[in-house]
Amino acid sequence: MQKLVILMLATVFSIGTLQAKEKEESKTPPPKPEAKVSVTDHSMRIDGTKIDYVATAGTMLMKNDKGEPKALFGFTAYVKKDTDLRTRPIMFAYNGGPGSASLWLHMGILGPQRTVVVDTDFSDNGPFKRVTNEYSILDKADLVMIDPVGTGLSHAVGDAKNEDFWGTDQDIESVASFIKQYITENHRWQSPKYILGESYGGMRTAGVSQYLVSNYMISLKGIILVSPFLQFVTGFDFGQADLPHVLFMPSFATAAWYHNAIADKPADLQTFISQAEKFAVEEYAPALMKGARLTIDEKQAIADKLAAFTGVSASYWLLSDLRVDHQAFLKELLKSKHMTVGRIDSRFKGYSLDPVADHMRYDPMTSAVGPQILSTFMDYYTTDLGVKDVSDYKVFGDVFSKWDFSHKQPNGGFMKMPFPDTGVDLAYAMIQSPKMKVLVQQGYFDMATPFFTTQYMLDHLKIPDALRGNISTAYYMAGHMMYVNPPSMAKFKQDLAAFIDQK
């Protein structure tokens, strides 16, 4: 009996010890987040000149002020071999969204490989083709493609959450911090530095340029705004605010011109654009400003002219109180043909998902181009660049609906503005760094960030007249991603190279 009791006590003690050990092991912290990169050697030819370079693809570990890990930032860097890093320019680039990875610019125009896209049409469903990119910027500058947190392979770690990075100011701070850390770890403080941002990347770039010079004393040689979105108020035409409708209207005209939806179509697009802009400013805007004071006859006259410019009936304009938002327009323009026109590039068109719907249900341009770029990028990323784990790669993170758009503008004191305008940041950056150059690249058939909206933003920058010469603009016969159009692709590279070469 005594032996039995001893045995039972020993068993209980063993079980208790085992449970205590398991409990202790359960408290063991998870492994520390670790940056992982793949480094590969490559060579290519641009205009007959051989370029040997090193590609580094993977993640960089970012830490907070306490030295605690907060994010793994995905990036791909291309650095030319056997060159003086102090004089070799370096360009940081990204797309927008917010919530978009940088594969569009990466495989579309900037990187050493590019996707062969069928312009304005849907391609066969694979296999898709990629080729050596003769329009890459690597002959002029080293290149670092960045994926902000929540896109690509970038994600929060430690106690941080992805949502901590999802906001105008949070995004600006994190990307600026990445750039500072990259140039520190890679000995690029002396390099002439450029930033290129597309779409919402324009809002990011304007903010980052100001943040870098104000907080880190990092000056930029130049920034490139591709199809930029900088002002929330002028960038959306869904409400009753008059200004966005005025700024979008010339883009309606270019889409109608392209699709032969207007009577007596002028042969020259530039002349037609000038006429549309003149009407928008001198007649359309004053009419909208009148509101209920606009007479029936005046309203009919404006509707008739809108119909003549846009190919959408006067009756539709009247039913919409002379305010048709762009998604309704893109659905209405070719509605009789059961076709929807592209938002990212209004030269594209596709069959309507719902012919009687009053707004577009999808973007034909994204559906046509997206699968080609993603497929070729993933193939390139995992084979040529040797990145192993891409199972969590995110083209579009679940970001936009959770984005904190409020912004602490540099002229706003401690108050945050509910709707961002980083045009203010851009003006401050240009004033604080008066040698910094700005290149704006804009497509005429862009309905996401219309060309007249971009021009309005530039015209209203609060900078000294002497600094306006630092801004140059280039326009293309294509849309938001103008580089899917072969002639525009060549012009894009030419304009960008000339911008970097200028003294």
Strand content: 15-25%
Segments where pLDDT lies below 50 for 5+ residues? 1-13
User: Which CATH class of the largest domain?
Assistant: Alpha Beta
Q: Which architecture of the largest domain does the CATH hierarchy give at level 2?
A: 3-Layer(aba) Sandwich
Question: In angstroms, what is the radius of gyration?
Answer: 26 Å
CATH superfamily annotation of the largest domain = Alpha/Beta hydrolase fold, catalytic domain
Series of secondary-structure elements, N-terminal to C-terminal = HEEEEHEEEEHEHEHHHHHHEEHHEHEH
Structural class: alpha/beta
- Give the overall average pLDDT: 93
Shape assignment: globular
Largest sheet: 10 strands, mixed
Number of helices: 14
Share in helix: 25-40%
The structural domain count equals: 2
How far is the first residue's CA from the last residue's CA? 98 Å
Q: How many β-strands, per DSSP? A: 14
CATH topology of the largest domain: Rossmann fold
Protein name: Carboxypeptidase
InterPro entries: AB_hydrolase_fold (IPR029058), Peptidase_S10 (IPR001563)
Organism: Shewanella yunxiaonensis
Signal peptide: 1-20
